[in-house]
# Entry
Amino acid sequence: MHITSAFDSGNIEVINADARPIELSIRQDNNSDFYQWFHFRLEGKTGDSYPLRIINAGKAAYPAGWENYRVCASYDRQNWFRIEAEYDGNTLDFTVDLDQPSIYLAYFAPFPWERHLDLLAWAQGHDLVQLETLGQTLDGRDMTLLTVGDAAAAKHKVWMIARQHPGETMAEWFVEGFLEALLDDANPSAQSLLADTVFYVVPNMNPDGSVRGHLRTNAAGANLNREWQDPSMERSPEVFLVRQKMLEIGGDIFLDIHGDEALPFNFVAACEGIPGYDKRHAELEETFKRAFVTASPDFQTERGYDLDKPGEANMTVGTNWCGHQFRTLALTLEMPFKDNDILPDPIEGWSPARCRQLARDIFLPIRETLKVL
Ligand code: ZN
# Structure
């Protein structure tokens, strides 16, 4: 039996390979206490069973994330299915029955760095797309902005950023689906939007954390979604560069794409707690949510985060900073790590395919919101 995580977004430490169950531990994000993302390959004997135990699950960033959680697994790194797991408040236990010599296991279907580069390379070939490198991360990776549409002629500007929290790979699956639909000449929703709207898309806000196998932070250990009030090139260049571009360009809708460890639903969080939150904010938010419910049975509004009290928003959060700075609609979209309990999938749980479909369904709420701007 052999376990390795020495690859893109790999994360696991083998504590005791001779124990049964085999004892594993998730590595902390660099310079940070956060951890929960794992991704590794187990090689063994076809037909054998391998009981595994993540011994530090109970002290992970979101222990509630392990309740009713099923582990993502893949033999071919393309098709991901789920494996039942047991969480007792301290450890996460699951058993791998090998049908092939080796299997990949992860917290959610990984979105590889190479796939990110492929996405950018594919998108830049489209007439409507401009690729711009805003600058570099602390590890020297490019921060890339895709502008889709005619910036000079457009009436409306929509921003979409994803993966501030790198372990939330569902966010980039979503963006990939969004860009494919947006650049589909046969998609009437996309075509009608692009007639008067330009999209500014940052598919990966946290390249270093993604490659390092972090859950929540960049190379320096900064939680980027707490850096928006005062980002710096030393600690959070990712936010500094994108925020600077936002200030230069402005925008009418800001969408920040995430995943939630605990809640088995899709939902949005708004900026109701910011100073100056007004009727216009509320109306745009209502319009967007109503249209999203109509567009997708995977989206709902009954379950989500507790609302911030008036004036008590954390202004270091991207959505709150954008909603306040630009006095317009700013939303965090959360997708589940587990499954959508309203429409569960016993084989895959919440999956890349469902992320991509939800992205296709976000055109209607964007269109309806732009109408009432
Ligand atoms: Zn997040």
